[in-house]
Amino acid sequence: MPTPTAATAPQMIVRRMAFPHPVALKGQWNPARPEFSHMVNAGSLGMPFLEPWLIATMRQAKAQISDPRLLAEIDLYIGQESTHFRQHQQFNRRLADIGYRSVPEMEAVLKADYAGFAADRSFAFNLAYAEGFEAMALTIGHMLIADREYLFADGEASVGSLVLWHFVEEIEHKCATYDVFKALDGRYAWRIYGLLFAMVHIMGRTCQGYRAMLMEDGLWTSWRSRWALWRLLGRIFVRLTPRLLRILKPSYDPREVVDPAWADAWRHQHAAGDAQLGDLDMSRLAEAGPVARAA
Ligand SMILES: [Fe+2]
Ligand SMILES: [Fe+2]
């Protein structure tokens, strides 16, 4: 069993994954947690716009960098983000095919947001947002993995496997934008501004998206659903807040954030040739490492 990694940057790998979404995939892919299902769906809608914009920002950064190690780190980061948004694109098309009107509506909003950042904002802003997003994504990855059984156990294997793969890789590339930000800017105030802007923007759009999908499912007016949503938000923020506060320290360095043992186990299993990590057994998430359904 791999030991937790301390104070290191894991070696990034660009992986080709397949997630066997069922023909009968539902928007509420976790019937026990409809609110969490739509929270994930709403987050997924942003990925095909956010991640290509991250890639474009890092390509711009490359033009100002000569360190070959940092250039190689950026290339692997771009490789991972490219596979992420393509998988989310496929998943989002399935959500659109189910008939959610809010999918194309939110896609139009998110497309305009990131086109606007690319066209109208400074490189310094885009770089700070990129690092802010990645710092936040690292905290979300830790939260999702720590609470994986509660959040995913009753859900569709393909969706849980997609989300957990994505965040294993977000943890794996935790240093990339940080290293670029440090090399090209490094101003504390801008790092914090980028974090706060990214959080407000992404959480705002995610809230807008899940509210629209819960409305389409007729749940937004249900007090039971609203209560479940508030409990879920409370549960998430109790787990996220201490991790988010750590980012505010001037000495913050993602290398010092110890990776979750389950994420290390996922990476080791992939390296050992386990090709079934896109189809995990959601009833065995309590185990120390991922277990494929076919295992
Ligand atoms: Fe990603
Ligand atoms: Fe990322």
SS strand fraction:
under 5%
Shape: globular
> Count of DSSP helices?
10
Present as ligands are: fe (ii) ion
* Assembly classification: single chain
Query: Percent range for helical residues?
Result: 55-70%
* Radius of gyration from the alpha-carbon trace, in angstroms: 18 Å
Biggest sheet features? none
Low-confidence runs:
1-6
The CATH class designation is Mainly Alpha
- Average residue-wise pLDDT: 95
Total number of β-strand segments?
0
Q: Which architecture name does CATH use?
A: Orthogonal Bundle
State the secondary-structure class. Answer: mainly alpha
Number of domains: 1
> From N to C, what is the helix and strand string?
HHHHHHHHHH
CATH topology: Ribonucleotide Reductase, subunit A
The termini sit apart by 17 Å
Give a quick rundown of the structure.
The chain has 295 residues and is mainly α. Helices cover 67% and strands 0% of the residues.
What would you say this structure looks like, in words?
67% of the residues lie in helices and 0% in strands. With 295 residues, it is an all-alpha fold. The protein has a single domain (34-264), classed as Ribonucleotide Reductase, subunit A (Orthogonal Bundle), CATH 1.10.620. The chain is globular, with a radius of gyration of 18 Å. The two termini are 17 Å apart.
